[in-house]
Amino acid sequence: MGEADVPAVSAIRVTGWKAAYAGIVPRSHLDGMTVEADTRRRRQHFKEPEADTIDLVAVDTLGRVVGWACLGSFRGAGTSAATGELYALYVQPSLIGSGIGRTLLEAVHAHALARGFDRMRLWVIEENTRARRFYERAGYVADGVVQADDYDGVSVSEARYQRTVQEQFL
User: What is the pLDDT of residues 71-84, one digit of tens each?
Assistant: First the structure.
């Protein structure tokens, strides 16, 4: 991912949130999300990247960014250095179901193996059944760990998923 990709990634992330979390995350939070604000935050991250964060983009045949994924070391306590985390995976909402997400996830797993991760974890909002099915089809299993994030005073639960990463899955 290059700096020129940041506005497209932000557009995919914001539209993805608004599509996936309508009726789950308070409308006030979703309405407050803008591509411009997200672009500013992402550009700052781009200028001061975390050491082991990898950003991947999927592009269509015309070179337009249509998906984005981000991974790095698992951010939880008490985990071995061989555990990675998928921080984010978004596909342009109109293209969900076209295989872009699966392709990005396969690229995430390839980068995880190259980094020496033997296990990947991720968090999914519990009510996001579409995303949960997607990850379950890719071999992820909910491990029983749950956390909650607050969005404009509403607690939204997330389930943690994990799977091993091996050559055979690529």
Answer: 998 987 666 678 99
Does residue 116 come out as left (phi exceeding 0), alpha (psi in the -120 to 50 range) or beta? left
DSSP state of 22: B
β 119-125/83-91 pair status: parallel
Asked if residue 84 lies in contact with residue 74, where contact means CB atoms within 8 angstroms, the answer is yes
Cβ–Cβ under 8 Å, residues 144 and 158: no
- Look up the domain containing 48 and give its range: 3-169
Residue among 106, 128, 9 at smallest CA distance from 59: 9
- Cα atoms in the 13 Å half-sphere on the side-chain side of 1: 27
Summarised one tens digit per residue, pLDDT across range 98-153 is: 999 999 999 999 999 999 999 999 999 999 999 999 999 999 999 999 999 999 99
Q: Amino acid identity of 59?
A: V
Give the domain CATH number at 131.
3.40.630.30
> What are the C-alpha distances in Å from 55 to residues 26, 39, 59, 70, 94?
28, 15, 13, 4, 21
Q: How many CB atoms lie within 10 A of CB 158?
A: 17
C-beta of residue 151 within 8 angstroms of C-beta of residue 26: yes
Task: Please report, rounded to a whole number, the percentage of residues in the chain having pLDDT higher than 70.
Answer: 93
